């Protein structure tokens, strides 16, 4: 029986998706003159590693202290009412136990966009995706107690809400509740991943670049036809942690319907079919089951935040059938898609359940717009 009990991280993703629904807008006139900016931000993080496994709770003995630096440019051509910023950033912090996990260093691309933008105050969200380097991963002889991260190189994902207060036209201060997820997608075990909840606060400085004229009819790769069906075929690899760590192939087929909200957003739902090969046995109350069926399926709802060819996907799903008891009844997906043309799309996403990464999905899809 499916239980609709969501973890904290899933609730954050769902809340982020709900707020993102208000991140689209339309132009009020045929053309406007808009200033472009280069933005510099420096932030300090204070938080904790969420203990979604008992050994994390046992070993956590430090609060998270971190810093980051970001530089980006505004893009009025994407949306000149709620102007997004796209740029590069770097992050560094401890991981709750410096002797066991070491430190995390990350480089990433970030996207931020306001939902409310006033003269002295703005509220919005920021999304970051990149690579993280953990200094002390698991090692069978040198660091066997680290059961969270098995590799130096990991995927780094950050979701945050921004409350920003402008001191003057150039200087601002901000407060940002944030969720950071760091894992390798089970390419290398162990990989329960680390989830960091923190408050980021700091200051930003904006430099004026130039004034551009934004047209209402400017080209957008988010096809303005209201309805879209995307067929997506994906695959990847993961290590099986039930017997011994051997790499296995995984795959999936995704059918996604989305509805056009504006040039920066689509909302939708869909159906997933997953294939995860299994070569182990598990025990039920009455019998031993060997090699459970590798197929499972579910349904999901989601939101796609669109910046021209690039988009960020947030989805929350529920499995309708699965034989393997180690698979959770609910799952999440966060990912990046790049539209190669009006119809073809490339996909990279992280699929998670029970606050733990399952695997990284690499895929190619086709859009039917009508």
Strand/helix succession: HEHEEEEEEEEEEEEEEEEE
Biggest sheet descriptor: 8 strands, antiparallel, barrel
The average pLDDT is 84
- CATH fold-level assignment of the largest domain: Porin
SS elements, strand count: 18
Q: Can you tell me the CATH architecture of the largest domain?
A: Beta Barrel
As for the number of domains, it is 2
Assign the CATH class of the largest domain.
Mainly Beta
Provide an overview of this structure.
- With 370 residues, this protein is mainly beta.
- It has 2 domains: 28-215, Porin; 227-369, Porin (Beta Barrel), CATH 2.40.160.
- It contains 2 helices and 18 strands.
- The strands form 3 sheets. The protein has an 8-stranded antiparallel beta barrel with strand order 1-2-3-4-5-6-7-8. The chain has an 8-stranded antiparallel β-barrel with strand order 9-10-11-14-15-16-17-18.
- A hairpin with a 4-residue loop joins strand 16 (330-339) and strand 17.
- It is flat.
- 39% of the residues are buried.
- Mean pLDDT is 84; it is low at 1-5 and 24-29.
Give a short overview.
It contains two helices and 18 strands.
Keywords:
370 residues; mainly beta; Porin; 8-stranded antiparallel barrel; 2 helices; flat; disordered N terminus
What are the SSEs and their pairings?
Elements: H1 8-20, E1 31-49, H2 54-59, E2 64-74, E3 85-94, E4 103-117, E5 121-134, E6 153-166, E7 171-183, E8 194-215, E9 227-239, E10 247-262, E11 265-276, E12 281-283, E13 288-290, E14 295-307, E15 310-321, E16 330-339, E17 344-353, E18 356-369
Antiparallel strand pairs: 1-2, 1-8, 2-3, 3-4, 4-5, 5-6, 6-7, 7-8, 9-10, 9-18, 10-11, 11-14, 12-13, 14-15, 15-16, 16-17, 17-18
């Amino acid at each position: 029986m499916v239980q609709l009990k969501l973890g904290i991280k899933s609730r954050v993703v769902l809340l982020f998706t709900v707020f993102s629904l208000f991140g689209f807008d339309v132009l009020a006139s045929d053309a406007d003159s808009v200033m472009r900016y280069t933005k510099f931000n420096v932030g300090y993080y204070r938080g904790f590693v969420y203990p979604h496994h008992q050994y994390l709770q046992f070993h956590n003995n430090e609060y998270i202290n971190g810093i980051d630096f970001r530089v980006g440019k505004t893009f009025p051509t994407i949306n000149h009412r709620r102007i997004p910023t796209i740029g590069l950033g770097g992050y560094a912090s401890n991981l709750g136990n410096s002797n066991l996990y070491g430190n995390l260093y990350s480089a990433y691309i970030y996207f931020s966009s306001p939902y409310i933008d006033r003269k002295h105050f703005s509220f919005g969200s920021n999304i970051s995706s990149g690579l993280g380097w953990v200094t002390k991963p698991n090692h069978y002889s040198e660091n066997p107690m680290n059961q969270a991260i098995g590799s130096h190189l990991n995927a780094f994902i950050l979701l945050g809400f921004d409350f920003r207060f402008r001191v003057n036209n150039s200087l601002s201060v901000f407060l940002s509740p944030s969720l950071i997820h760091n894992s390798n997608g089970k390419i290398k075990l162990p990989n329960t991943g680390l989830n960091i909840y923190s408050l980021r606060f700091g200051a930003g400085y904006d430099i004026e670049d130039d004034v551009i004229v934004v047209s209402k009819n400017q080209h957008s790769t988010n096809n303005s036809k209201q309805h879209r069906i995307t067929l997506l075929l994906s695959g990847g690899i993961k290590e099986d942690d039930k017997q011994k760590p051997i790499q296995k192939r995984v795959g999936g087929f995704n059918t996604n319907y989305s509805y056009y909200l504006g040039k920066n957003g689509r909302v939708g739902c869909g159906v997933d079919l997953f294939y995860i090969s299994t070569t182990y046995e598990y025990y039920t109350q009455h019998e031993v089951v060997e090699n459970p069926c590798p197929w499972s399926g579910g349904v999901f709802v989601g939101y796609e935040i669109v910046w021209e060819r690039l988009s960020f996907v947030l989805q929350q799903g529920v499995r309708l059938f699965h034989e393997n008891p180690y698979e959770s009844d609910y799952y999440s997906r966060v990912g990046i898609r790049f539209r190669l043309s009006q119809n073809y799309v490339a996909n990279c996403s992280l699929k998670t359940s029970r606050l733990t990464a399952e695997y990284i999905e690499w895929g190619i899809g086709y859009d039917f717009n009508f």
